[in-house]
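Write out this protein's structure.
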Amino acid sequence: MKFPPFFYKLLLQHTLFCFFLMLLINGYAQEQPKGKKINCQADVLRYDASVNPDVQILTGNVVFTHEGAICYADTALYNEKTNIIEAFGQELIIHINDSVHLYGKYLMYDGNTKVVFIQQDVILTDEYSILYTDRLTYLRTEGYGYYDTHGTIINDSNTLDSEQGWYYTDTKDMFFKENVVLVSPDYTVKTDTLKYNTQTKIAYFVCPTHIYSEENTIYCEDGWYDTEKDIYQFEKNVIIHTKDQVINAEFIWYDKVNETGLAQKSISIYDSVENALVLGEYAEYYGKDGFTFITDSAIAVLIDGNDSLFLHADTLWANFDTAQNLQEVLAYHRVRFYRDDLQGSCDSLVYWANDSIITMFRSPLVWFEKNQCLADTIRLFIKNREINEMHLISNSFICEDVFMQKKFNQINGVNMFVYFVNNEIDYVFVDADAECLYYVLDEQKALIGINQSVSEKMRIAFSENEVSVITLYNKVKGDLSPEKDKPNVFLGDFIWLEQYRPKSKEDIFMQAFYKPELKITEEEEEEE
């Protein structure tokens, strides 16, 4: 049989070409023991001693086998001395084992090292995935193949591209390097280095990684993503951008199907709708149950230019409706908040978002300007982020520092209702057992005397934060006396608690709290 001229030219180049390929495949081939001979068969087998007496020339339905691997090709060159075969064909196939198959147009196989080099329209398949590349080296003994000329992996509904890749067919682990892009039905992942298991369908991130979806964008520097179960875990400088929020943490775990999540370390959640920021060290989220909580140095910040409100509690808890709209926020225990013109503390607090109402429980205290308010329960009605009303429920007491925390205007009663206009007191209404003591001053702020009044109900009007008119209802009793004739200038329940008042946003972490014995039982104290 006469072969075309190009075939003889290829044969003449075989020895040198084979040498360089051997260097590429295995730099230590000289130290390897000789392997079993490759078994070859074909329609025609020839030698050309003038070119290389050790090389078999095989053409037509070429088949070679070696220790469980079998290859089909159109033509081949087999060097019996080196135990290396080169195969060519438009439909070249090598079956590594029952599950791993390689396709290409040129192949070189070393029978000593059991290393396969295949190129030109290369396809690798197993029971889980398909790999497309232009050049691939497969090490049978180690059970993995690698490429360095760009490759594409298709694994069910996931597609992965990279410039370099290593695929371990036994463990189904894939390692990708340089311009890595993983596209799944819900996310696109872009990174420089990634590990992916085609059996578990879990992607592992080990360097700066960006993840994009219709709902959010995510950045992290470590972690993993289960593309089948839609569970992810992100670590190191995690940043998540959603439509309305920006979330930062060092660790975030989330199960999208069950809508449960966990975050830890340096947590920061900014909500653009509420213009609020939440900080903490540990948080959990339960979407189907409609709640989330954050604890460990938990802070909520209601942002309002330079007049933001800072609130701290042991735990902050938020409840949502089925549309994920905020319904209420609960803060407990050891609650304290600060704003330049408003401060407060209590054991626990509830904020109803729909009505913009804050209710403070167990020894609540509110301060504004020189005023201190306390009661068994305090309810604040918010409008445009300012107090519109304040209700003091049961054992109510308001006092105002008149002179260096030595003289105080005081209002006492069962329940009080305080109304504000332009962030200043307009009037106070006391609904039962009303009592009032205040220092009457002239226009030059000189003391005229002390007015003390008692009635069933009382209305105190203010002008520029000073008492202007007092209206008494039913069972009225009162007098105006010189200070020297007033040996007792404090109403019965008076107490001044300035030491518990936060003077700055840093003071919301103060340890001291007001806990009157009559308002906290022993059982409640143990719960804390």
